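>> received
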Amino acid sequence: MPTNLLKSAWTPGPLPHPATAPPEPLTVTVTAFRPHRITDLPGIHGAARALAARWNELEGAYGMWLWALPLSRRVGSVAVWRDEAALRDFIGWPPHAEIMRTYRGRGALTTTAWRSERYDREDIWTRARTFLERPQCEPKPEGPGRPNDPKETP
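>> returned
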């Protein structure tokens, strides 16, 4: 398990917290981004915080956590949605789409999603950590002189 995982407090969406709502199926997503250049991390952090500040605008969002693995230079989110339709709405949401355009090609993104019959915070984080441990979640080095090389400058 990633032992140096940092995570934010729960950022609520407009739906009631799923722990207090009647038990119903929900969708969970985990995203992991590793920028090619460490100098992109401050901008990524700012963009993530800006999205979090507007999370309550997302109909169909229960809430989310931001996370970081600083030693691995990886950041991302764990989000809880009413359903896949709410997730698709988020993907097309103009503030999210703008961030994706800004950082496209500037790192490696991996994601996973699953349907859960009920909200279980411990299970969500166990599954998220398991995903983050998988080799396919850690972007492969691109070799000397490639954008993933930390010595490379823009």
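>> Strands lie at 6-7, 11-12, 26-35, 61-69, 74-81, 107-116.
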